[in-house]
């Protein structure tokens, strides 16, 4: 890892296998950024507990699966550090220190809280956990433990990076300069819809996803199930690609000439939806095929993948402990 480069940190919760929404929303972006920055890619298992504290059954398997998806889609563990959040003590310590530097009303105003409360295992809206309220503070600890300059996230996470900047400022002002203020970077790719409609986000919990580990046949079946323009029934009917899920996928993954061609053929009643979907399923499969192959290979050697995670975690512990030492000394807790 090149230590002169600026640092980048981002993470995924270990909720299951990654899908095309994750791929176009963040993974491709990371593949590009890994050469530009010293990257820390974290598996956020503690974050997962903030909503799913009693669903720990599959976490271990999901951690492995995420690491496999990262590597299969081109994130290189020789260039970047892969690590597991809960194995790095600095995150928990910093979360606690930072929790003194932020007010409860400030956390209650964070826009993601309401959604998280709905997802959470505390169904009563007024009785969400202390840990869930502090979720963005934990995220600030994740970022600042590595003094990351950039944090690639989805739009919904911008408010968390803003809070991180406030916490960094408050710490620096109170105890002395330790932290740089990180900047969020948004990935350029548009939102990927689910197979059930252009206005629904792809998500595993809605079972509308195409995952990077789906088989050839599963991919095809899911593409064939996609919601199209309801006004186009026969091949010769004129369709409206802008309301069609299939077309939004062409938009994301086809070459510009093919996008224009599909649009033309659809609008002029020259192609039927079945043929249009078949062509799309080939495109999707062509994209996923190399990822699937690599995944298959890694699945045969899980201990190699765990080694990568353990090595990365050692590196993360080393790096974040330096930050903790600086904090302790500025805070005059060095006894
Ligand atoms: N909160 C993020 C999510 O739910 C995951 C995450 C945890 C994260 N810590 C982070 C992302 C730090 C960026 C930086 O997707
Ligand atoms: Fe959608 Fe293609 Fe059917 Fe047009 S032809 S409505 S783009 S599936």
From TrEMBL:
L-tryptophan binds at residue 142. The lineage of its organism: Bacteria, Bacillati, Candidatus Lithacetigenota, Candidatus Psychracetigena. A motif ('KMSKS' region) lies at residues 201-205. Coiled coil: none annotated. This is Tryptophan--tRNA ligase. Its EC number is 6.1.1.2. A motif ('HIGH' region) lies at residues 14-22. ATP binds at residues 13-15, 21-22, 154-156, 192, 201-205. It comes from the Bacteria.
